[in-house]
Amino acid sequence: MSFLTSMSEGWQFTLQLIIVLICLFYGAKKGGVALGLLGGIGLVVLVFLFNVKLGAPSIAVMLTILAVVAASATLQASGGLDVMLQIAEKILRRNPKYVSILAPFVTFSLTVLCGTGHVVYTMLPIIYDIAIKNNIRPERPMAASTIASQMGIVASPVSVAVVSLTAMLLAAEHPLAGFDGYVNLLMITIPSSLIGVLAVGIFSWFRGKDLDKDEDFQKFIAVPENKEYVYGETATLLGKKLPRSYWVGMWIFLAAIAVVATLGYFENLRPGWENAQGKVTRLSMVNTIQIFMLLAGALIIIFTPTDASKISKNEVFRSGMIALVAVFGISWMADSMFAVHTPMMKEALGSVVQDHPWTYAVMLLLVSKFVNSQAAALAAFVPLALNIGVSPAVILAFAPACYGYYILPTYPSDLAAIQFDRSGTTRIGRFVINHSFIIPGLVGVTISCTFGYIFAKMYGYL
User: Fold this and answer.
1) Helix axis angle, 374-387 relative to 358-371, nearest 10°?
2) Cβ(160)–Cβ(375) under 8 Å?
3) What does residue 113 show for φ and ψ, rounded to 5 degrees?
4) pLDDT in tens, 248-272
5) Rounded-to-integer distance, Cα 23 and Cα 34, Å
6) Burial tier of 427 (Cβ tally within 10 Å: 0-12, 13-18, 19+)
7) pTM to 2 decimals?
8) Cys-Cys link to 350, which of 122, 151, 198, 346 (CB 3.0-4.6 A)?
9) Is residue 52 helix, strand or coil?
10) What's the CA gap between 283 and 12, in Å, rounded?
11) How does 435-449 read in b/e, with b if 16+ C-beta sit within 10 Å?
12) Which of 280, 307, 414, 362 is CA-nearest to residue 78?
């Protein structure tokens, strides 16, 4: 294929980009692990046809995903997640009129604690039940809750996105002065994301017609069978006495998170090793999270009657493994392609991004939609951005922009919300793009990025 390698770099880049986009679009359409597997096609074309030097997959990110998913899946298998969900339901049912604002904060908090947005699935039928029984349009809290659950990833001390982004910013050629990593990142992402979730909740409070004024809904429930289907039986975890072992599992997991956060804040508590030059290298936060997530899972198995065979069969484990394969294939393909063209892209895009920092956020948002994963989007795009001259401060400020897969309603949690909403108010519109999640998503991410920029300035990074 010498005619391909003899083309100008511009033409080679264009053809390679088309091939990569085809793999991304087709993989996203197929769903599941297909997105990661399609990276194999891209790699074969790049390496064997274009003679591109093979890049490196994001091993550290993948191992962190593995550790966090293993711990979270063990938590679910132990019943500890049921305890969290029961507490969350108590909060919502005590304040049913405010479910449109409270529900997003509840699902956001669950994600922050567990490191994955997939914990939202069990909450969705409860949120629907509270809304419909109080004559609140279910679309309001349900769409907001799925959006907020994903926004929590970039604010979670045990999420892969946070750990990998921290590592990439610390490894930048010109690291930020005063930025020591993990905790400094969370000091930006937690408050900015919380403000974004509040904005989503306030917007959702007023969106759509009230059920008594919605002609389509009233026409639908005029049929007795439909009304019974819509209002149905009450979905609840209340009244269920959960075994003591469930609580033990939850406290072990939360204790591990607390230890990780403490070690992130107090660097000197982490062990260090002195090299020949006398410089002390501390245990990285990436490795710290990996160690303590594995420890949390092990302690849960030891101190609770958890059936280890069920760990690999639950939703958290399955979803996590899909994310692992996606990060593997996509990050490897992206690193291989962009590394060889970095000088050209720096010359073409470097000045644009430096003069208009918001363009970085837009591009990251679009990459996230292509790969349907915040960790994969960061792994694929941040190294490129750093190489073409994007300031680490801009990357830090716009961290929430790594969530863009609400643009099209293809993500599992969005589809689950549509399925659980028996009233039909949470839906995909006639033109696909006009669905229930796009405006809350845009509101939440835009506000989070705006305040992320403000906080980054406040702390002197910008």
Assistant:
1) 140
2) yes
3) -75, -40
4) 999 999 999 889 888 877 888 989 9
5) 9
6) middle
7) 0.80
8) 346
9) coil
10) 41
11) bbbbbbbbbbbbbbb
12) 307
